[in-house]
Amino acid sequence: MLRALTRALRLPRPWRPLQTRSCASDGAAGDPEIQVRVLAGPDQGITEILMNRPSARNALGNVLVSELLEALARLREDQQVRVLLFRSGVKGVFCAGADLKEREQMSEAEVGIFVQRLRGLMNEIAAFPAPTIAAMDGFALGGGLELALACDLRVAASSAVMGLIETTRGLLPGAGGTQRLPRCLGVALAKELIFTGRRLSGAQAQALGLVNHTVPQNEEGNAAYHRARALAQEILPQAPIAVRLGKVAIDRGMDVDIASGMAIEGICYAQA
């Protein structure tokens, strides 16, 4: 068992650094819906994924999901990425959730495939080897909140509005929300929020422990982004391998009994 765990916990091999660029999937026409930005200077080591689909409030459609998966596949092998920050290029919104208008045009089989891709996307974010931070400067509803829940840390502006609202539309959170929200808030409170479809402000979310920090919104509408970047800057000076292995020890240890969790911690400690 310990040998299997050791193999599973090995860090990825170094890869060449990724340059700032946009992503487009499958030859999609028009402007890319996400951009990857590699910061420099005092922010060197921070990479940003900028969601920019203003016509649909960053809703998770086929193109946006494909571009996010493409970017994550490239970034996860880049040891130069010390912190990955998710932010929005659309003022007043982080991510409005799944694109229901697009989904209406799908067959039942296509909907099933798309939901599986959404789950795969959230799992890729959760399994990203470096720390991830969601900067929530506006609405984060349904799949948008599920995306933030897949990140390690969350920062919200006071003007942010978030919730798993699927039950208000005859749906169920389908991208991991029913699993990640209870781990964040506890079972009873997660059930209450999902059953009621309640929307929370940034301050309410922090009071419940749903986000790490809440900050007053500024005129530019990017206060959460600035606080998230400051949080990332606190991580940058720390030993990168120790940080990555700390993430592995916590994430893997939460899924097993205490004895197995201690064994995972021991393996990570030895590698560090």
Fold and architecture overview:
- It is built from 11 helices and 11 strands.
- It is of the alpha/beta class and 272 residues long.
- The protein has one domain: 2-enoyl-CoA Hydratase, Chain A, domain 1, CATH 3.90.226.10.
- The longest helix has 19 residues, at 108-126.
- Keywords: Lyase.
- It holds the Pfam family ECH_1.
- InterPro entries: ClpP/crotonase-like_dom_sf (IPR029045), Enoyl-CoA_hyd/isom_CS (IPR018376), Enoyl-CoA_hydra/iso (IPR001753), Enoyl-CoA_hydra_C (IPR014748).
Set out the fold topology:
Blueprint: H1 2-8, E1 21-23, E2 34-38, E3 46-51, H2 62-75, E4 83-88, E5 93-95, H3 100-104, H4 108-126, E6 132-136, E7 139-141, H5 143-150, E8 153-157, E9 161-163, H6 177-185, H7 187-196, E10 200-201, H8 202-208, E11 213-215, H9 223-235, H10 240-253, H11 258-271
Helix pairs in contact: 2-4, 4-5, 5-6, 6-7, 10-11
